[in-house]
Design a protein that fits this description.
43% helix, 28 helices, 20% strand, eight-stranded mixed sheet, alpha+beta
Length: 857
């Protein structure tokens, strides 16, 4: 058997053979506490599955990943576990029409965030459990048919340590030492869930009276570790939750279908969040231990609403297979921002979407692994890697374009019909397109072919011809596509003309919407307008494209980008300039210069944080190596200047303080950071809380100013789970060959670290100022990654392969080493090859950017 990696063909065959009627799952989690961790720590899992077969006498298999199976019974026949279980599958022969399978297994607790994750809080020694399954890790907790189209109702019961509370998808009650949960609606295996332990739990409720007089009451809950309770602003979580439920009830015309609505903030979580119906799980970093900016609260609200949209798009109606992952993720990504802007205080969410989310999509769509939004997912490893910028952010961008194309009312009416027609079922692309055709009257097949079934991103460039009198005599939009993905798509775009007003600001004075078709489209509506300083294609961000500029517009941006009054227009210009830098069409030092001159005037805090990230990336990767020292000095000087100029105590001050720490390298800069930590230096209004202390300590560790003792003393101040992650990162960041060797060994040669500490170690190891120290690991990387991929879980494998790729060894030699590995490892796992190919492509882009920057040096 092929082991853990279920293929699409196998899933199709099994779905054609079986229908699942019900699951009953009994877990005994009392082993989570006490004892020692010598060897795998396990728990008992007993599963009963009732299912039908259309072909009596046939053979199939159930999924289970477990250290051992105690007993297997099929239709009353005891099977030999050693004969039918191979570590990931249970062979089921001679099926009847009606079947009952009972599996008694010992399943393993996880330290990788997959399956049943077990976390021991270093602050108080308490144990916390939670599950994470997507795409296929529920089989690590109970036996099942692990594919999204074999839905069924679930009944769960759990025995837990005394004093614990257990939560699952349905309402639970404790009776005679057993937690028993209400039967779920028919759902897929990957969205079942458990959270168990001494969590801090708060409650609220949501009520809704519909037009027909019916009343809906939803119990609300929110939980976190006890150690985070003092930081937990559950009132704000509940506020956004209620606002979201109002929005979706107003627009979806389908009441929330899963009873209660718990939200658990859990430790060492691999994802941002997961849409388990009735029990949504989030990474606990969304509970803020220190002062954060409004952008962090906006991000949390967006994730809360993203997961809530999944209750309809994904949980109520689920894709048949992972090819149509976009049917849930693209919609949730779009609806998260759509609902946030319309229902919460975060009314500028589309600016964040344009500047942040879409940059993720643009990068993913230019990689050699780019794929259509409706992807070709051959197996589970493919599925795991397709939770990417295309499936999420590009898909959401395309849906934003779709709303402009068919109209808001038609789009939402299509969603309403889709839910009612396919409730508790599974769908494919055509099912959604059919309802949108009904509601819009448009041919969705052509739209789908262009937007959902092709890959790549188009570039739109304005072409302006002016008269001698300074009027527009012709304005056209030129559309281009990469040679590898030549599709020219239809775009509904707005074109904005901007000029400097007498009071010195740059404002829009003319706008036209046009349907872009083919390589050249004339915008006749703007002929005769006064000559613009700036032409902004895709003004208001209606479509998904890379914006380019004509020479006059680019010159205007160099002179006055900070004078543009509209924050969305400004964000779109920044994003376009960053794309020019990544595409080696603008020298990195020019982009850094723009940031130094204009970022201090940026009003949107999320955009400012993105500019800081881009400027740091421009310096680390795209700047000519010989200019990095000068560029770093300029960025640090600029960051410190803005830090001292910003309003004391403001979120902008906090943002500049974090950026200053990220780019500080000179002796005076490091002395200031050290003084801020020790209290001997002060910047008016800047409160150096615990999280900011760690942000200041890492560069001190990386530059050899803070040693192991200083880091240990900081951990003593913050002896918490969060503090431990920061400590591990700072330890790995120290500038020592021995430190790097130890960090490498702890990640590559050992599996003793949890997923969160693997991530922290890799982040500390890969310091941009340590290129010489990490150089010896470039060749080692290519020697070990295939073994690591084969031996470790897919999550840890992904972390190691992506995080330790020698991108800081930015030379032709590293590129050739990657090419040689790819040429020699044709038989390596496709998912592994994809990760290396993507990292190799990023490196090639970096080298092109450095060549561009060197040309002006």
């Amino acid at each position: 058997m092929p082991g853990e990696n279920l293929s699409r063909d196998e899933a199709r065959e099994r779905a054609a053979l079986l229908s699942v009627e019900a699951y009953e799952v009994s877990l005994d989690l009392r082993s989570a506490v006490g004892g020692t961790d010598a060897g795998p720590r396990t728990f008992r899992s007993v599963t009963t599955i009732r299912f039908r077969s259309v072909e009596p006498g046939a053979t199939t298999f159930a999924d289970l990943i477990a250290p051992s199976v105690t007993a297997v019974s099929l239709n009353g026949r005891d099977l030999d576990p050693g004969a039918v279980f191979d570590g990931s599958r249970i062979v089921l022969e001679d099926l009847a029409e009606d079947n009952e399978l009972v599996v008694d297994a010992q399943c393993a607790y996880s330290r990788t965030g997959e399956g049943m994750h077990r976390f021991v809080d270093p602050e108080d020694g308490e144990v916390y459990l939670y599950t994470q399954y997507e795409p296929a890790d529920s089989r690590r907790v109970f036996a099942n048919f692990e594919q999204p189209d074999l839905k069924a109702p679930f009944r769960f019961e759990v025995r837990a340590p005394e004093g614990w509370v257990v939560w699952s998808n349905g309402v639970g009650e404790l009776a005679d030492g057993v937690w028993k949960f209400a039967e779920t609606k028919p759902i897929s295996t990957y969205i079942t869930a458990f959270v168990a332990g001494p969590y801090h739990y708060v409650t609220d409720s949501y009520e809704r009276v519909f037009e027909d007089g019916t009343r809906l009451e939803i119990p609300l809950g929110a939980m976190c570790r006890k150690g985070l309770a003092r930081h937990f602003d559950s009132d704000d979580v509940f506020l956004v939750t209620k606002q979201g439920l109002d929005f979706f009830h107003d627009n979806f015309d389908y009441p929330y279908p899963f009873g209660k609505y718990d939200q658990a903030f859990v430790p060492e979580y691999n994802l941002g969040a997961m849409e388990n119906p009735g029990l949504v799980t989030f990474r606990e970093e969304f509970i803020f231990r220190g002062r954060v900016t409004q952008a962090s609260y906006e991000r949390r609200a967006n994730v809360i609403l993203h997961e809530m949209a999944h209750m309809w798009f994904g949980d109520l109606v689920t894709m048949v297979w992972w090819d149509d992952l976009w049917l849930k993720e693209s919609f949730a990504d779009f609806m998260g921002t759509f609902s946030m802007v319309e229902a919460t205080r975060f009314t500028n969410g589309w600016i964040t979407f344009a500047n942040n989310r879409k940059s993720w999509a643009y990068r993913a769509d230019q990689l050699p692994s780019t794929h259509p939004i409706t992807a070709d997912i051959r197996d589970l490893e493919d599925a795991k890697l397709n939770f990417d910028g295309i499936t999420y952010a590009k898909g959401a961008s395309v849906l934003k374009q779709l709303v402009a194309y068919v109209g808001r009312d038609a789009f939402l009416e299509g969603a309403r019909r889709y839910f009612k027609r396919h409730a508790y079922g599974n769908t494919r692309l055509g099912d959604l397109l059919s309802v949108l055709e009904e509601t819009s009257g448009r041919d969705m097949a052509a739209w789908s072919r262009s937007w959902l079934q092709t890959a790549g991103v188009n570039s739109l460039t304005p072409q302006v011809i002016l008269s001698a009198e300074g009027r527009v005599t012709e304005l056209a939009i030129l559309q281009e596509a990469a040679e590898s993905h030549p599709e020219l798509r239809p775009h509904r775009v707005a074109v904005g003309l901007y000029r400097r007003s007498p009071d010195g600001v740059v404002e829009r004075y003319a706008r036209a919407e046009v349907d872009v078709e083919g390589p050249r489209t004339v915008v006749g509506e703007l002929v005769g307008a006064e000559a613009p300083d700036l032409v902004l294609v895709n003004d208001d961000d209606l479509t998904y494209c890379k914006i380019r500029f004509d020479e006059g517009s680019l010159a205007a941006l160099r002179d006055g980008l900070g004078d543009i009054t509209d924050p969305l227009a400004r964000a779109l210009c920044w994003s376009a300039l960053w794309n020019l830098t990544r595409d080696a069409l603008m020298p990195a030092r020019d982009f850094i210069d723009l940031v130094l001159r204009f970022a201090g005037r940026e009003t949107d805090i999320g955009v400012l944080q993105m500019l800081h990230a881009w400027a740091n990336s421009a310096l680390t990767h795209y700047a000519a190596p010989g200019w990095r020292g000068e560029g770093g000095r300029l960025l640090a000087e600029g960051a410190l200047r803005e830090l001292r100029l910003t309003e004391p105590g403001s979120q902008h001050q906090l943002t500049w303080a974090r950026f200053f720490a990220a780019v500080a390298s000179g002796e005076a800069d490091l002395q200031l950071l050290q003084g801020l930590l020790e209290g001997t230096a002060k910047i008016d209004g800047l409160e150096v809380d615990q999280e900011l202390r760690w942000a200041f300590l890492e560069p001190l560790a990386a530059h050899g100013v803070a040693d192991e003792g200083v880091i240990a003393a900081e951990l003593a101040r913050d002896d918490t789970a969060s503090g431990k992650r920061h400590q591990v990162r700072c330890l790995a960041a120290r500038p020592s060959a021995a430190v790097k060797a130890q960090a490498w060994a702890s990640v590559v040669e050992s599996d003793s670290l949890s997923n969160a500490l693997v991530e922290a170690t890799i982040a500390g190891f890969a310091q941009s100022s340590h290129r010489e120290l990490t150089a010896p690991y470039a060749s080692k990387y290519f020697e070990v990654i295939e073994r690591v991929w084969g031996e470790r879980s897919i999550q840890i494998g992904m972390d190691v392969v992506k995080g330790l790729f020698p991108s800081l060894q930015d030379s032709q030699g590293t590129l050739e080493a990657a090419d040689a590995w790819l040429a020699d490892r044709g038989a390596a796992a496709p998912a592994l090859r994809r990760l290396v190919l993507e990292a190799r492509d990023d490196l090639a882009r970096v080298l092109r950017g450095q060549a561009c920057d060197s040309a002006v040096g």
